[in-house]
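REQUEST ID: PR-0412
SUBMITTED BY: lab tech R.K.
PRIORITY: routine
TASK: structure prediction, single protein chain
INPUT:
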Amino acid sequence: MDKSKIKVCIGLSGGVDSSVAAYLLKKEGYDVFAMFMQNWHEADATLHGDCEWEEDRFVAEMVARKIGIPFYFVDLSRTYRQRVVDYMFDEYAKGRTPNPDVLCNREIKFDAFLEVAIKYGADYVATGHYCRKEILRSAQDDKAVYRIMEGTDPNKDQTYFLCQLSQEQLSKALFPIGHLTKPEVRRIAKEADLPSAEKKDSQGICFVGKVDLPTFLKQKLTSVEGPVVEVFDAYYADNPLYQWQQSFLTGILKPGATLERTVRYAPEEKVLTSDGKPLGESPFREEAVAALRDAELDHLALPVKYDIAFETETYRSGKHHIKKTRYKENPHGRIVGTHEGAQFYTIGQRKGLGIGGHSEPVFVIATDTSSNTVYVGEGHHHKGLSRFCLRIAASEVHWIRPDLAMPVGAVRRCRVRIRYRQPLQSATLLMRPEGLYVLFDEPQRGISPGQFCVWYDGEEMQGSGPIQA
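STATUS: complete
OUTPUT:
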């Protein structure tokens, strides 16, 4: 294969990863050109923040000059606003937790950006993602089948962000640094004297930069003060759904296995890949899991709803016996503060609550945008922080390889993650008419509607979908 006849557009962001990707492609003999995308304007009222795109563009242009490849600029801010920013506002308004980086890859980098690159004559688009692409041949018609594999660096795997890509998009994608570790990428950049060699990794919203999220959301979502309610353990003792889930899961355990409903907390490990480890053994009986009825799975996937009512009482205070009103004590919880809008908070959030007087950290365990209430719990082991099961609607289950799609009634063991930087978790997937259910071997902390749940078989990422409420 004469690589000099293959034209590749590298999405050059100004960071070290895409810079080294461009350098390696040029070194391998491809006909490479770089393109930098602008995804928003400072004059655009939708976003305000300390963004660095102008500096990034300057660095990207210097990298292209250093490598000796053409450099182009494309403004995709309108498309980005319509497909990513508006989606974020809509999801947060519904009390869900979106992932703009997943949408940016599906809708921008490997769609709108790809279209522009093709107009410039590109055969492929390359990025600096830490993942690998493999090509198989279909046994049925000998067509190419594309796989997304974990990156070699166990601390830097970025397949999660590509979980919504299609076979068509993958056919045009290249990931030149997926076989490298981050230290190796830094070393190559330094040896090649690339201007981005010492540049820190970007943070914040995809191709936008650091933006304070609450400030960003307040551009369109109205701030309305509401109560912050702390939920006590007693609530779960009296909650029928929680008690049913506890009893049901205990009933399908293997002999000798025990059920721990709360997460054994420890800071998340750095190892993101499967790292060659075998899939763990489920604590639940296989025949019992396979026989679960749809209604039972629905109940297992439901989050606990909080409906704590607070009554008021009047009392007299001080030497003048001034009449005042206070909330009566409630064994299920208490109002511990106020917030500026339930849509600005997400499950598992710890910062920004402004609640004192607790010996352990306080976390968001639920939000209710209809009543504008934020529910919190004290401590890493709070019962409201963890769940065993989630559901993805049938219409939103995405298979990267359609040939691996599970038919209704199928059961499959996989590794799963519900957010980037989470080590892979062992789980059982069950496909039913209403959607895909994921039953984890261990309780999962901070399952939030709107987050993408992604599953893997060994090193291969198979599919994904947004978590339902």
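NOTES: The first strand starts at residue 7 and ends at 11.
REVIEWED BY: pending
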